[in-house]
Specification:
Layout (H helix, E strand, L loop, with lengths): L10 H12 L2 H13 L3 H29 L3 H8 L3 H43 L3 H8 L3 H20 L2 H28 L4 H9 L8 H14 L6 H7 L7 H32 L14 H14 L5 H34 L4 H21 L1 H31 L2 H9 L9 H11 L1 H15 L1
Bound molecules: tryptophan.
Length: 449
C-alpha cells in the first residue's frame, strides 16, 4: 500500500535543504545582534569554536540516527532503544522533541510574518498606498495574525508537496538567491559612511570580553542555528541515501551555516554603524546596543529611509532576504510533526500538513493574544532550556544506548575508508563523554545564572 520512502535526489539537494534549515533568522538576525551585544569579535571566535566542537558532533548524532532509522525522531529513538526502559525514554525524548519543534515554529511564524509585512511595505509605498504601508509596519493584533497566517500557509504549501518537490526544490532555488541578495547588500553598505568602524568592531576580537555568559550565549546560538535537538536534522538525515558520507555532509552543513552567519555579520554590524552615522540612535544611554526586534524593525528601516530614492529597493531586498531565510527554516520545523503523523497514522502527507499546520497556527494566535506574557516565555522555554536538554538526550542515545556495532556500521555506509579518519577515532567517544558533559555544564550554569 505504501509508496517507497522519499529521498533527497542528490548530495547537493540535501546540502541545500539542511543548510536551508540551518540558515535562518538565527543567522541573519540572531548571530549579528548577539555579536554586537557581546562585544564583537570575541563572540564570533567563541561561536565558531563551539559550532565545530560541540554543535557539529551533535548534528552528526542526529544525522546518523536518522539515516539508520529512516523515520521521524519519535519512531527512530524507540527503534534504537534496547529494552523497555530505554524505549520509554526514547518516546519521551522523541515526543518532547516533536512538541518543541512545533512550538518553535509557532513563534518563528510570528517573527517571519513581520518580515513579510516589512517586505510588502515598500511595495505598498511605491504603488501609492501609504495607509496600507502604515498598517503593515504598525504593531497590531490583526496585522500579526494575518501575516503569521500567510507565512504558515506558505510553509504548509511547501511541506505538503513532499521532499523532492517541496523541501529540496524550494531550498535549492531560494538558498542561492539568499546568498546573492546578501552579497549585494554588503557591497552597498560597506560603501557608506561609518561602515568601516562597524567592520573593525566585528573583526578585531577583544579576548578580555570572553566570560561564562558569553560562552553560554554562543552555545545556545550554535544549537539554534544548526536546528539541533528537536529532530529536524534527524528527519532530514532519514531522507539521505546510504551512498553518501555523513561526516562530510554534516561538515558542509556546519560550514555553510557558519559561513552565512559570518557574512550576515558583515552586513548587519556595519549597517548599525552606518545608521548611527546617519543620526539614528543605535545604542541606549547605558551604551548597550538596541537589540531585539527594534534593531531590525526600527534601526534598519530608518537607515533605508535615509538612503533617498534607492532606500525602498534596498529595504525590499533586505526583507525578501529575511523572508527567504525564514521559509527554508520553517519548513524544516513543520517537517518534524508532519513526518511523525504521516508515518504513524493513515493520514496522507497533505492531510497531516493541514491538521498540524492549523494546530500550530492556533498556538501562534494564542501567543499573539497574550503577547506580553507568552512570546518571550515560549522562546526561552523552547530554545534556551529545551533544545540543549534534548541535544543532551540525543547524544546519550547515540553514545550510550544504541548498539555500538550498528552505530559504527551506519557511519561506515557511504564512506568505506572512514576507519582511517580522525572522525572514526574521535567522534564515538566524543559524543559519549564530552558532548553530554559540556552541555550539562553549560545548562547548569544557565540555571544558576
Ligand atoms: N536554524 C534556524 C535559524 O537559524 C531555525 C531552525 C530551523 C530551528 N529548524 C529548527 C531552530 C529546529 C531550532 C530547532 O533560524
Amino acid at each position: 500500500m505504501s509508496a517507497p520512502r522519499e529521498q533527497f535526489s542528490s548530495k547537493a539537494g540535501f546540502i541545500m535543504a539542511a543548510a536551508g534549515s540551518a540558515v535562518g533568522l538565527g543567522n541573519i538576525w540572531g548571530f549579528p545582534t548577539q555579536t554586537a551585544t557581546n562585544g564583537g569579535g570575541a563572540f564570533v571566535l567563541v561561536y565558531f569554536i563551539l559550532a565545530f566542537m560541540l554543535a557539529y558532533p551533535a548534528l552528526m548524532a542526529e544525522l546518523i540516527i536518522g539515516r539508520h532509522a529512516r523515520a521521524n525522531v519519535f519512531t527512530a529513538l524507540r527503534g534504537i532503544a534496547t529494552g523497555p526502559f530505554t524505549r520509554k525514554l526514547g518516546s519521551l525524548i522523541g515526543g518532547y522533541g516533536v512538541i518543541v519543534a512545533s512550538f518553535i515554529l509557532s513563534f518563528y511564524a510570528i517573527i517571519a510574518g513581520w518580515m513579510l509585512a516589512f517586505m510588502v511595505e515598500p511595495v505598498a509605498l511605491m504603488l501609492g498606498f501609504p495607509s496600507v504601508a502604515e498598517w503593515l509596519t504598525t504593531f497590531s493584533l490583526e496585522r500579526n495574525i494575518i501575516t503569521a497566517a500567510l507565512f504558515m500557509g506558505l510553509t504548509m504549501a511547501i511541506i505538503a508537496s513532499g521532499i523532492e518537490n517541496g523541501i529540496e526544490k524550494w531550498s535549492s532555488r531560494l538558498m542561492p538567491m539568499l546568498l546573492s541578495l546578501l552579497l549585494a547588500l554588503i557591497i552597498y553598505v560597506l560603501n557608506q559612511d561609518g561602515a568601516m568602524e562597524g567592520l573593525r568592531v566585528y573583526l578585531s576580537p577583544d579576548l578580555s570580553r570572553i566570560n561564562p555568559p558569553l560562552i553560554l550565549d554562543a552555545l545556545g546560538q550554535a544549537f539554534f542555528s544548526l536546528s539541533l535537538g528537536v529532530g529536524t536534522m534527524l528527519i532530514y538525515g532519514s531522507y539521505l541515501s546510504r551512498e553518501e558520507s555523513l561526516p562530510k555532509l554534516g561538515a558542509w552543513v556546519t560550514l555553510v551555516d557558519c559561513g552565512i552567519a559570518f557574512i550576515a555579520g558583515l552586513l548587519i554590524i556595519p549597517a548599525i554603524y552606518v545608521a548611527q552615522a546617519h543620526g539614528t540612535q543605535v545604542f541606549t544611554e547605558a551604551g548597550d546596543l538596541i537589540a531585539g526586534p527594534d534593531l531590525i524593525f526600527q534601526v534598519l528601516p530608518s537607515l533605508f529611509n535615509s538612503m533617498g530614492s534607492i532606500g525602498p529597493v534596498v529595504g525590499l531586498t533586505f526583507f525578501v532576504l529575511m523572508s527567504v531565510a525564514a521559509v527554508t527554516s520553517s519548513i524544516s520545523m513543520l517537517e518534524v510533526p508532519v513526518s511523525l503523523v504521516s508515518e504513524e497514522t493513515r493520514a496522507s502527507r497533505p492531510q497531516a500538513t493541514l491538521i498540524i499546520g492549523a494546530l500550530i497556527f492556533c498556538a501562534s494566535t494564542v501567543t499573539l493574544l497574550n503577547f506580553d506574557v507568552m512570546f518571550g516565555l515560549i522562546i526561552d522555554i523552547t530554545t534556551v532550556y529545551s533544545q540543549p536538554l534534548l541535544g543532551l538526550g540525543l547524544c546519550v542515545f547515540a553514545g550510550w544506548i544504541w548498539h555500538r556495532d550498528n552505530l559504527l556500521k551506519e557511519i561506515q555506509a557511504g564512506h568505506p575508508d572512514i576507519a582511517d579518519s580522525w572522525f572514526w577515532k574521535i567522534w564515538p567517544t566524543y559524543v559519549r563523554f564530552f558532548c553530554p558533559l559540556l552541555i550539562l555544564a553549560a545548562f547548569g550554569q544557565s540555571l544558576v545564572g
